[in-house]
Amino acid sequence: MSTLGGIILLIGRIFFVALFLSAARGHIKNHPRYVEGSGKKLPFPILAGWPAGVFLLIAAVSIVAGIWADIGSLMIAAFLIPAAVLFHPFWSQTDPAARRTHEASFYRDVSLLGAALALFALFAATGHVPFAVTGPAFNLH
């Protein structure tokens, strides 16, 4: 990969994790609200607060700093699957406005899941992450 390509990828990594850094801050700062809101959706609602925030923070730092960025990408993917299915089930909403809101959030999560998986594949298949502390942990080539 050229230097310019590496710079563009680094900028993309920074932009990609911006949403997750914001979410991490929210999960940590508003722990009780997240725990209460996930009470019937998760078997252990306590995990929705600061533990989820710390998980997202570690994943975001991993991707930006390039410390096993492939693992950080998989961590984001692992977060997004239950977030989409458990917290944005638009198919079960009867109110049209709530349905639209949950549908948009569901597809946002699915799109971000695709981006996280694409980053994982890029890092693991090339065996190189430009401007990174470490290389990828997985080898898909």
Detailed description of the structure:
- The protein has 141 residues and is an all-alpha fold.
- 71% of the residues lie in helices and 0% in strands.
- The protein has helices at residues 3-29, 31-37, 50-65, 69-87, 96-126.
- Helix 1 packs antiparallel against helix 3 (50-65), helix 3 packs antiparallel against helix 4 (69-87) and helix 4 packs antiparallel against helix 5.
Helix/strand class: mainly alpha
Instruction: Compute the separation of the termini in Å.
Output: 15 Å
Rg (CA only):
16 Å
- The coarse overall form would be elongated
The major beta sheet can be summarized as:
none
Annotation field: number of helices: 5
Kindly report the oligomeric state of this protein.
single chain
Number of strands: 0
The total tally of domains equals: 1
Average pLDDT score: 94
In percent, how helical is the residue content? over 70%
Helix/strand order: HHHHH
Low-confidence stretches: none
